[in-house]
Amino acid sequence: MRIWSIHPKYLDSKGLVALWREALLAKNVLEGKTVRYLNHPQLDRFKNSQTPLAAINQYLSIVYNEAVDRQFNFDSTKFRKPILSLFLKVSEGQIIFEFEHLLFKLKKRDLNLYKKLKETKTIMPHPVFKIIKGKIENWERVKRD
C-alpha cells in the first residue's frame, strides 16, 4: 500500500489510478469494512487524526480532483466531500524520500515525465499534509543504518 504524501499531480497515469485504489482501500479499512491491512503503518497517520474518516475523505477528494483535471472517470460517490479542511503532518524527509522513490519508478515507466520532474526544486505535498522538519517517517519501509 502506498498512500503518497506528495501531491498527486506528480504521478503518472498508472500511479494516479493505483493511488485511487489504495486510498479507497484505506477508507474501507478505516470504516471497518475489511479485515485486510488493518495494521498497515501508512494508515496510522489517518488513524491518529481526530477525525480519521474525514481525513481520508479529504485525501480522496484531492485525488479525485486531480483525476477530473486529467479527464479520468473516477467515481465521486466512493467518498464524502469534506466539509472542513484539516491537516496531517508529514516530515520533509518523507516528502523527499517519496519524490525520489517516484522518480525511480518513472525512470522505468514514463521517461518523459521523469525528465520533467527530476528538475523539481520544491516538492509540494498532498494538500492534506503540512510539512514539518524531520527525517523519513518511522513507518516507511527503507533500509536503516
Key phrases:
two-stranded parallel ribbon, mainly alpha, globular, 45% helix, single chain, 145 residues
How would you characterize the overall build of this protein?
With 145 residues, the protein is mainly alpha-helical. It has one domain (8-132). Helix content is 45%, strand content 6%. It contains 5 helices and 2 strands, in the order αααβααβ. It has helices spanning 13-30, 44-47, 52-69, 92-109, 111-117; strands at residues 88-91, 129-132. The chain has a two-stranded parallel ribbon with strand order 1-2. Helix 1 (13-30) runs antiparallel to helix 3 and helix 4 runs antiparallel to helix 5 (111-117). The radius of gyration is 15 Å and the shape is globular. The model has no long low-confidence stretch (mean pLDDT 93).
Quick rundown:
This protein is mainly α and 145 residues long.
Q: Biggest sheet, open or closed, and with what strands and sense?
A: 2 strands, parallel
In total, the number of strands is 2
Structural Rg = 15 Å
How far the N terminus sits from the C terminus, by CA atoms, comes to 24 Å
The spatial strand order of the largest sheet comes to 1-2
Which class best fits the helix and strand makeup? Answer: mainly alpha
Residues in helices, as a percent range: 40-55%
H-E order: HHHEHHE
The domain count comes to 1
Number of helices: 5
CA-based shape? globular
Unreliable stretches (pLDDT < 50, length at least 5) are: none
Task: Describe the protein's topology.
Blueprint: H1 13-30, H2 44-47, H3 52-69, E1 88-91, H4 92-109, H5 111-117, E2 129-132
Parallel strand pairs: 1-2
Helix pairs in contact: 1-3, 4-5
